[in-house]
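[09:14] KT: can someone run the structure on this one? pasting the chain below
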Amino acid sequence: MPLPLLLRLSLSPPLSGCVRAHHYASQLILRSQAEHLLRRRLSSRLVTRGYSRKSRSQEEEWRTRNKTVLTYIAAAGVGMIGLSYASVPLYRLYCQATGLGGTAVAGHDTDQVETMTPVKERVIKVTFNADTHASIQWNFRPQQTEIYVVPGETALAFYRAKNPTDKPIIGISTYNVVPFDAGQYFNKIQCFCFEEQRLNPHEEVDMPVFFYIDPEFDDDPRMARVDTITLSYTFFEAKEGQQLPLPGYSYN
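[09:31] RB: done, C-alpha cells below
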C-alpha cells in the first residue's frame, strides 16, 4: 500500500474526532453568548420599564403641582381684581370717617352737636370753591365766597348748579378740605357729595352744605396757625363705570 494512502487512513479517525469536538465546543460557546446577550436584553428592558414607570409617576406629580400652583395664581389674581374694585369705595369711606386726604368727616354725633361749646375766641374763615370736570356741561358755583365760623358752631352754605344744555344730565360730586389736616375736624351734617344729582334741560338748583368744625380743632397744636379752611367741590358726569378720584388727589 502506498505510504500517502496509509497515512491518510491512519490519520482520518483522530482528525474527524477533533473536528467534532471543535464543532461541539463552538456550539456551546455560541449558545452561552446567546444566553448572555438575551439576559442583557431582558435586564435592559426591565430597567427601561422601571425607569418609564418612574418617569410617568414624576410627570403626573409635576402636572398635579403645576395645576395647584396655577389654581393659587388664578385665585390670587381674582382676589386682587376684586380688591382693586373695592379699594376706592373702601378708601373713600375710610377718608370720610377719619378726615384723611382732606376729606371732611361724614356724619355727626347728635348729642355732640347739641352739647358742644363754641370756642368764641377762635374765628376761622371758611372759603368755598367749585369746579366742574370736562366730562360735564354744568354751570356750578358757590353762593358765597366765604363765611366766618368758630369751632363748635354750626354753619350753612349753598352751592348752585345749572344745566344749560337741551338734554338731562346726571352729575355726581367729590370734595376735599384744605389744609388736609383740618379735614378730620370738618364735619358735614348735610351735603350733596357722592350722590347723583339729575338736572333737566336748563334746570337750576341750590345745594346746601350744613357743617361745623369740631371744638377739638382748637386743642390740636398742628392747627395753631390755621385760620382759613377751603371747602372745594368738583362735579363729574355720572356714567356707568365712572370712577371718582380719591379725596385729596388731583382730578386729572
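[09:33] KT: thanks! The helical segments are 3-98, 110-115.
[09:34] RB: yep, looked fine to me
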